[in-house]
Structure formats: structure tokens, C-alpha cells
Amino acid sequence: MKKTLLIATLVIASIAASAQNTSQSYIQKFKDDAIRIMHQSGIPASIVLAVAMHESGCGNSLLAQQFNNQFGMKGYDKNILIVHNKKKVTPYKKYDSVMDSFEDFARVIMDKKKFAHLAKELTHFDYAGWAKGIQHSGYCSSHTWASQVMTIIRKYQLNLLDENPADQPPLVASAQ
After folding, report:
1. Which of 29, 72, 153, 175 could form a disulfide with 158 if both were Cys (CB 3.0 to 4.6 A apart)?
2. Are 148 and 137 in contact (CB under 8 A)?
3. How far, in Å, CA of 10 to CA of 109, rounded?
4. Which tens digits make up the pLDDT trace of 22-64?
5. Which phi and psi angles does 106 have, rounded to 5°?
């Protein structure tokens, strides 16, 4: 009986783990969207992708799963978030798609006065400047946020997306 229970638990845990997004799968799934946003806005693709990964736990957060909200963006509407089978009214924005979330993040960074200066001061190659600028302009309250975002960029070499993505090697080495 204990052996059957152990096997069932392991199978369920394995299924749950495979259902979650990993960093590598998140990058592969959304890197083209981040590049598209970079070409439209000038915000580095590495910043768009790393901020989304950081804020959404690679798409595993409740906001990402239920609202397609990859950045923790708040709005004026009230939406219902299901937390532990209970309904919670929340001001977090709900999006039809992840791309809509990416586009809204770019819109906020480009249009809000407190962030708009970044596009005038920085190029899309300066991910460190963007991360520090976004933090210092009030996007987050954490004093280590920019450092955490830059660590994600460096760990996964997301800055390669800011160059010419067609000329870069693949970000993910095949597992063998």
C-alpha cells in the first residue's frame, strides 16, 4: 500500500512539474514577442523578456496563468482572481494574450512620464541602463530589482536578442 501511494505521488509530482513553465521553455515561447516589442518600442528584448520572467515566475504565477499578466500590471478595473478556490477582487489587469501584456508593458514604459525619458537616453543595446532606469523611475519598490533582472539576462544570455537575432546562435542548448 505504501509503495503504491509513493508511486502515485511521484507520478502526480512529475506531471505537475512538467506542466509548469521552465525558464528555457518560457524563453523559447516568448522571445519572438519580446523581439517584436523591441522593434516597435526600442525597449531591449532582453529587458521585456527578463522582466516578464522575473515578475511572472516564467509564467507560473497566478496572475500569469489566470490573467495573462506577465508584469504584475495594475489597472482601474476590478477582476476576479481565484486563490485557493476563493474569489478575490483585484486591480490587476487581465489580458487576452501574453502579447497583449507585453504590449501594455511597452506602452507604460514609453508613455508614462516617469519612464519616457529612458527611450531618449538609452539604446536598445543598453539592457543594464534600462533595468536601472526602470527601477529608479519607480517601477518597483525593491532595491535589488534591477540586479535580479540583469542576473536573468546574463544567465540566459538574453542580451543576444538585442543584437541581430538572426545572426545569433540558439539560446537553448539541446539536452542530450
Report:
1. 153
2. no
3. 44
4. 999 999 999 999 999 999 999 999 999 999 999 999 999 999 9
5. -60, -40
- Whole-angstrom Cα distance, residue 158 to residue 40? 18
Report whether 52 contacts 152 (CB < 8 A). Answer: no
Amino acid at the residue 39:
H
Task: Give the phi and the psi of residue 77 in degrees, each rounded to 5.
Answer: -75, 160
Domain ranges of the chain: 21-166
CATH architecture of 21-166: Orthogonal Bundle (1.10)
Q: Which residues contact 70 (CB under 8 A, 6 or more apart)?
A: 52, 55, 56, 59, 63, 64, 98, 101, 102, 105
pLDDT in tens, 136-166: 999 998 999 999 999 999 999 999 999 754 5
State the burial class of residue 42 (Cβ atoms within 10 Å of its Cβ: 0-12, 13-18, 19+): middle
